[in-house]
Amino acid sequence: MTLSVVAGSTESPLLEQTIGANLESTVARFPEREALVVVHQGIRQTWAEFDATVNDVAKGLIGIGIEPGDRVGMWSPNFAEWIYIQYATARIGALQVNINPAYRTNELRYALDQSGARLLVTRTEYLNSGYRDMVEEVGEDLPALERTIYFDTKDWAELLESGRSVSDDDLRSRADSLAPGDAINIQYTSGTTGHPKGATLSHRSILNNARFVGEACAYDEDDRVCIPVPFYHCFGMVMGNIACSVFGATMVVPSPTFDPEAVLQTLQDERCTSLYGVPTMFIAQLGHAELDQFDLSSLRTGIMAGSPCPTEVMRRVIGDMNMDQVTIAYGMTETSPVSTQTSTDDSVEHRVSTVGRVQPHVESKIIDPNSGDVLPRGEAGEYCTRGYHVMLGYWNDPDKTAEAIDAEGWMHSGDLATMDEDGYINIVGRIKDMIIRGGENLYPREIEEFLNTHPAVADSQVIGLPDDKYGEELMAWVQLSPGEDLDEDNLKAFCEGKIAHFKVPRYVKFVDEFPMTVTRSEERRVGKECRSRWSPYH
Question: Is the N end or the C end of the chain the one with fewer CB atoms within 10 Å?
């Protein structure tokens, strides 16, 4: 009997560098090769030019007093300034706090307060997001927040001007004081207990994960990677940006937020060789009325992740988009993020029925969730992983860290998985009560606790319903307090501006009462049984 435990290759040693040092080595190798193309801003830089901009921003941060270990919030869609802050904070030892650009006041307040951010970098607005207005609304509740820089105003020029008093030697001294194991990034993950938790990642974990992701895609300096996925996710900033800087490939940013036509146009115009996305993004591009009018012949690889890929979608991505070497990746923010990935030469069957095999320097096992015993191959249990890629912990939350990472260093994913005889992993379900909507991981408890703050709501149950576009869609069952009156439109209006739009339930059903049960998990089971009582398809 073969047990469901496997260790990745250790033949190639881990990179023991900081992100800044690794960038320097790439600049030295490829100074005149193209590093960054931001189509919607008209920005085009070589690695030497990109590095110079990063240094200017890093000096600016030093100039305004940012010290090693300080937290710097970054709240924006995909703009070049996001990338400059990403590399500049890494160069000076500040921790970048990734803030979802869809966050509203409630979530923004929590992330900035819990992280203790001294500085926030953002825009004044984008589309229907009034970032300045929201910052001003929550500012008085954030004693640690000393300054906000709006990069679409004169603030950005003033930041760069502040760095003119900082010498090259000052910057070098700061960079040389850093170590690969230092914390460098905080990413908030939706929480089962009502608040997100700040997964804290290091130079070592991010840099090496990006490297192994890129190796699975067979990257080199000739690759041009189209990155329409958001930077605030590991998918964008690690698998996208840093994977490019490790190999000297070009970062290509088509638009601030996902736009299928902008992506297709960029793939053609920039001759991209790789494309990233969650399945819903690929579905949107495949569904474009003029897909066959775009020249996608330069494409060969890419990554699809975030939720399971339907077989037909994978076949069309390979056939209609020329991505015969597209890969599938699996992981979580807490693992920097990738634990397993298919390779460019894996069969289509493996790419639609599994999430690949364990990456180098990573261990994986499938255990019985109750006993903790390792299960035989083929049996479903909880997926656990251990290695360099596991987070340092949840920021300022040792109790939640201890719940997630056991005494032997295994990260417990909460996902149910199987492992076959060849070591391929298949995710078959979730122990955690997570809903995946278009690649966004949503936890019902967080949304329920917010809905329950409405004065008319006595209790709520949030569940996931099947959805052709997003994979799953949110539905809330709501019990009103005695004598109260509330309708669906007013409940949704209550949510607007306070929680991210993708957390607002699409469907709302009012009930007189919920069954009285012993535990919250049993309530969740009852809530899920509501699927048989009401469905948007009936």
Answer: N
CA 174 to chain centroid? 28
Structure token digits, residue 2:
């073969």
**Which pLDDT score is estimated for 493?**
95
Spatial distance between the Cα atoms of 214 and 359, rounded to a whole number of angstroms: 11
Residue-level pLDDT at 469: 87
- For residues 330 and 426, what is the distance between their CA atoms, to the nearest angstrom? 10
pTM for the full predicted model: 0.86
Q: How far apart are CA 480 and CA 132, in angstroms?
A: 35
d(CA 449, CA 429): 24
Q: Is 90 exceeded by the pLDDT of residue 537?
A: no
Decide: helix, strand or coil at residue 188: strand
Q: Amino acid identity, residue 249?
A: A
3-state secondary structure at position 289: coil
Protein fold of 435-532: GMP Synthetase; Chain A, domain 3 (3.30.300)
Q: Where does 75-154 have alpha helices with state H?
A: 80-92, 105-115, 131-138
Percent with pLDDT over 70 in the chain: 94
Q: What is the dihedral of CA 85, 91, 93, 96, to 10 degrees?
A: 20
- 289-315 in b/e burial notation, b at 16+ Cβ within 10 A? eebeebebeebbbbbbbbbbbeeebbe
Q: Buried (b) or exposed (e) across 116-127, using 16+ Cβ within 10 A?
A: bbbbbbbbeebe
Please report how many Cα atoms fall inside a 13 Å half-sphere around the Cα of residue 13, on the Cβ side.
Answer: 3
The mean pLDDT value of the chain amounts to: 92
| Exposed/middle/buried for residue 520 (C-beta within 10 Å: 0-12, 13-18, 19+) | exposed
Q: The dihedral of CA 54, 57, 63, 66: what is its sign?
A: negative
Contacts (Cβ under 8 Å, ≥6 apart) of 327 = 216, 217, 301, 302, 303, 304, 341, 342, 343, 344, 346, 351, 356
Could you tell me if residue 336 is left (phi over 0), alpha (psi between -120 and 50 degrees) or otherwise beta? left
218, amino acid identity: A
Write the DSSP string, 206-256: HHHHHHHHHHHTT--TT-EEE--S-TTSHHHIIIIIIHHHHHTPEEEE--S
Q: What is the distance between the alpha carbons of residues 19 and 28, in angstroms, rounded to a whole number? A: 14
Question: Of the candidates 242, 239, 300, which has an alpha carbon nearest to the alpha carbon of residue 267?
Answer: 300
Give the H or E element holding residue 175: helix 168-176
pLDDT in tens, 72-102: 999 999 999 999 999 999 999 999 999 999 9
**Which residue pairs from 171-175 have beta carbons closer than 8 angstroms and sit at least 24 positions apart in sequence?**
171/55, 171/58, 171/59, 171/62, 171/91, 171/92, 174/58, 174/62, 174/68, 174/91, 174/92, 174/93, 175/18, 175/20, 175/21, 175/91, 175/92
